[in-house]
AAA-ATPase-like domain-containing protein (Tepiditoga spiralis), 596 residues
Amino acid sequence: MKKRLPIGQSDFKTIIEEDMYFVDKSLLIKEVIESGNVLLITRPRRFGKTLSQSMMKYFFDITQNNEYLFKNLKIYKEKNIIEKHLNKHPVIYITFKDLKSNNLKKMHDLLISELSTLYIDHKYVLNVLDEEEKLVYKSITLKKANDSEYENSIRNLSKYMERYYSKKVIILIDEYDTPIQQAYLHGYYDEIISLIGNLFGMALKDNVYLEKAVLTGITRVSKESIFTGVNNLEVSTVLNELFNDKYGLTKEEVEETLKYYELEYEEDEVINWYNGYNFGGVEIYNPFSIVTLAKNKGKIRPYWMNTSGNFLVKQLIKQGSAELKDKIEKLINGEEIESTINETMVYGDLNNNLEESVWTLFLFSGYLKWTKNINHDYERYTLKIPNKEVKIFYNKTVVSMLEEERIKFDNMLLNLKVGRIKTFTDQFKDLTMNTLSYFDVSGKEPERFYHGLILGMSVGLKEKYIIKSNRETGLGRADVILIPKDKTDKGIIIEFKKYNRDEDKSLKDSAKNGLNQINEKKYEEEIKSYGINNIIKVSIAFDKKEVEIISNLDKGIELTPEEKIAKEMIKKGLDINMISELTGISIEKLKNMLNK
């Protein structure tokens, strides 16, 4: 019988004692011992951070005898380390992974509760405390201390434990940044950051009772003064080589796992779906996805994307600038983008929607991978979507941004496809007027927003249409082109026009100019090259959230006075060059009128 897979299990002792399947990452302990006094390790969620912290707790903890847990692991061959460190250190272990709340008071209570539990677990140190220290200690266990006493609680506990054991203390903090992210999401960031910053700062800065500290999380948050002045701080992110193969699965570990469970699989398919991460130059697979793949007997599914924790990323895409949405479109199309990556990003900066902070968060959270460091001085990287599993998230997010408001994109484009242009126009106007107040449509290039909106609608048509945007076609650049794979269907061209108050008489006039541009610059040529001659041409003119739409499906499109005169001249058979001189209308536009 095969070993049980540790789905949802992050307690190292349980996994070993119950003989579950375990990918041996125990040499992480050796690397930690040989590294700096304070270590910060950031990786995406579900990449083994909690399990690794649990493993180190059982290895170092002086109150236990856990030799039997490590006898069959790689670390046990390191005899010098086993002799000096196995169950030889006082350990403070605390996890913040469950500190999640939408309000400040509850978060404060949750944090106090964690610190109270920590003190209760180590109440044996009361034997070496003086009376004044005992009073403060008991007030923390009873959740009646003041904030300054809570802020000093981890440092003081390390002092008491060092006094009790006559040995310096190892501090392990799991998911240290969860309360910081929660505070940002729910609007009490400024209020909580001081308490959290002081708690960590007191424990880590110039703490003479500290042997080593290891913190794990998703992001490095240093400008909040949490790590300012920390001696011998070493940071391991997805960008550097420190611990680069100790979180996530290497290709060899994936092959070994799938072979053990006797799964037949297409290597390329597994690579396309779950590979793509670059941790300090090492090719890494998503461990949660691989383990769940094995549990489901090799069925390819977007397992990681179905887990929680992507709310912030979705929110930032939704609220992002036109420039950000344009880059999201490029990523979905398989292209790379460039950005400066700020390893010391601050959640507070996200309020300003600084693009480098957004891309940094996406990279550290596992929604992007880096492919190349193109400028070492400015930490500038090329970025792309790591695999098909994550790409599905982007596709769904682009659509769900508006599905959350119960807008059905497929229905809107279906109305356009079958020629119900008035219904499409009414739905699109309603969308822009009533549901898009949070989008940036007033910047320097608001057309990028509308462009991204149409592309979002088009996601559901990918099986039936080839979707192209901003591509060279005919004599110019079409904004969006939908080429049907079934030649009996209609092709669609969409052009966006920003209202120009100096040149356009009205928003409708802008829309007409857009339709004229489609005709004059022969945007339909690329669609015709596929053998499609039935083409719907749509011009969407906008002034912030006000929209006017004109298409070649409209009956009796209003002509300008000059166009009416030109049309009569054409009917009388006058020379087209002369008509152009008299009316000021271009030859190309007159030819289009003649063809009609």
